[in-house]
């Protein structure tokens, strides 16, 4: 009888030990997930953005702004932006992922073993985007080709027809981000509370840094406001109105990263936490100018 009780006690003790271990492991996993989510929140806000009836998550939209911004800075046609977005959507859902087929990595799934760069380089969205367009512009008459054909000429994918499924979305976002479709791109983002003047100024500074990286433009930061003269944007072909809308769309698309809260262009304004572009009474913003603030 005592031996039976001892065996039951031993089994009970073993069961309790297993449960405790599982609870500890679960707590560690949950802590890791929460930490990862907090890390992500610290770098990019959640939310969704739309253009022409198509939707992207906030982080995807910021990467679309980088892709199209690169085409504008390099004075490439809007078609290049469509090809770039469609390619990145198919390859990685337009995210700089750290895995892929064989040694493929990054937003465009470029392979270090095939001379695309180091693993660190191809996972850098800026490097990956520049390298993609370095190859695309070498494709003869790429602007006249179908998106799938142009993308495949660069990527050499095992599924060349798959790029077509993203063409409509890519065209809608590229059109908005190049200024051809004014007020077409908007983001649904939660409002941001800036605690003091220094915090609001840092938002304008962050936007100015990203503006130079993506579009190659220098803005003027005054207190909490970034003023941008968009007329020198190479890809706008001297069209001040289109250039301003391209910069304005870019500012909204990158707001999840910069924490920008308001964008003004012409007689319209986008405010974080509100729906779409609102008409602003009074004097419009001067042609070719964009105001970006916290």
Rg calculated over all Cα atoms: 24 Å
Report how far apart the termini are: 76 Å
Low-confidence stretches: 1-42
Structural class: alpha+beta
Domain module tally: 3
Percent range of helical residues: 40-55%
Number of helices: 10
- In terms of DSSP E residues, the strand content is 5-15%
Mean pLDDT, all residues:
87
Keywords: Membrane, Transmembrane, Transmembrane helix
Transmembrane segments: 12-39
In short:
50% of the residues lie in helices and 12% in strands.
Q: How would you describe the overall organization of this protein?
A:
By secondary structure, this protein is of the alpha+beta class. It has three domains: 1-39; 55-178; 188-293, no CATH class. It contains ten helices and nine strands. It has helices at 2-43, 58-73, 78-92, 119-122, 125-136, 147-155, 167-177, 197-215, 240-253, 255-258; strands at 48-51, 54-57, 185-188, 220-222, 225-229, 262-265, 268-271, 277-279, 289-293. The strands form two sheets. It has a six-stranded antiparallel beta sheet. The protein has a three-stranded antiparallel beta sheet with strand order 2-1-3. A hairpin with a 2-residue loop joins strand 6 (262-265) and strand 7. Helix 3 packs across helix 6. The longest helix is centred in the first third of the chain and has 42 residues, at 2-43. The termini are far apart.
Structural key phrases:
294 residues; alpha+beta; 3 domains; 6-stranded antiparallel sheet; 3-stranded antiparallel sheet
